[in-house]
Design goal:
Radius of gyration: 17 Å
Number of strands: 0
Number of domains: 1
Largest sheet: none
Distance between the termini: 26 Å
CATH architecture: Up-down Bundle
Number of helices: 9
Shape: globular
Structural class: mainly alpha
CATH topology: AhpD-like
Order of helices and strands: HHHHHHHHH
CATH class: Mainly Alpha
Length: about 200
Amino acid sequence: MTTTPHPTRVPAAPITGLYGALVKKFAGRMFGRVPESLGVMWHHLPALKASMAYGQKLQKWDACDETLKTYAHMAVASLVGCTWCLDFNYFMSRDKGLDEDKAREVPRWRDSAVFSPLERQVLEYAEAASQTPPTVTDEMVAPLLAALGPAGLLELTTVIGFANMTTRSNTALGIESEGFAAACGMKPLAQPGPSATVGSSA
């Protein structure tokens, strides 16, 4: 992952005011700098605050394993082509204490042997739910329901829905990876393998 190679489709706005100072302080502490994407979203503070607030609420839910939710979000980002979300979630995997070597393999999960059967089912479900129209089947959901329970499956599905909102919004606005993972010395994300075709099965 490298810094954004071309300008975003909406130019970043100056981040000002008291709230802006707090946001810049938080971003600087987390990333070492203020992401350009924040400047883009600064044009519409209610939308930025709503997205951040919902994302923070999702982080507090615990009916589904954090690792599975992170892998699901990364699978959506890889499928949609949102390098910002893919890099950000990979970067955050270290902070969450997740297996970095597994996280970096999400873009080529179909060809990787590092994932458990349940993790592969989650990754397949995340991709299927993100197709247009969705390609989720009863056979796909049954083992997830048995493993995660109703609340866990609902939580996972909601995270996948939120991931689609953020990844598709970023892609439409031209917001790309800002190199968070590379900046802190993490290995480059794996590239999708030859069998990583949309709509294929695990």
